[in-house]
Amino acid sequence: MSQLSKWSSWFLCSALLIASSLTAFADQASEQATKLAGTKAREWVLNKFETFMGSEGGCKSGESYRFKVDHTVVISTCVSGKVQTQTQKWSIQSATASETHVLVGDKSYILKFWEDSKGQFMMLRTMGSSIDQPTKDMIFQLAED
């Protein structure tokens, strides 16, 4: 086997390995995106909205994230008795069988899903860098589809 033939074989094997890795990432990313946004949109509740009746209506507390398949997320939060919304972009940054990273706005999170008898859950985790900035988990429950 000539040196050129060896290099060609090595290059071909490397290209196939890269292509299969990209395919695996795309499959895993697609699966995680579907869990996050469903076929149109999914509402994930961090804190149930507690509302009160009145002339204008209002809220006492609550926060939810509505992830949409167009890669936007509408974040609704009760602030000073009113529901405020903001829309941000989201994307899957990396996805393997063991860990997925999602970017929401300019914040990167580790994304986890699980299910139990109480429903479907999602966690957005920010890794702490010190004792002053500990790891923070935001645990959401899927609202009724």
Describe this protein's structure.
Helix content is 24%, strand content 52%. The protein contains 1 helix and 8 strands. The longest helix has 35 residues, at 3-37. It has a domain at 3-47 and 90-142. The chain has an 8-stranded antiparallel beta barrel. It has 145 residues and is of the alpha+beta class.
Relevant terms:
145 residues, alpha+beta, globular, 8-stranded antiparallel β-barrel
Uncertain residue ranges:
10-25
- In DSSP terms (H or I, runs of 4 or more residues), the helix count works out at 1
Q: pLDDT average, as an integer?
A: 83
Overall, the morphology is: globular
Helix-strand pattern, N to C? Answer: HEEEEEEEE
List the helices and strands and how they pair.
Layout: H1 3-37, E1 41-52, E2 58-68, E3 72-79, E4 82-95, E5 100-104, E6 107-116, E7 119-126, E8 136-142
Antiparallel strand pairs: 1-2, 1-8, 2-3, 3-4, 4-5, 5-6, 6-7, 7-8
Condensed summary:
The chain has one helix and eight strands. It has 145 residues and is an alpha+beta fold.
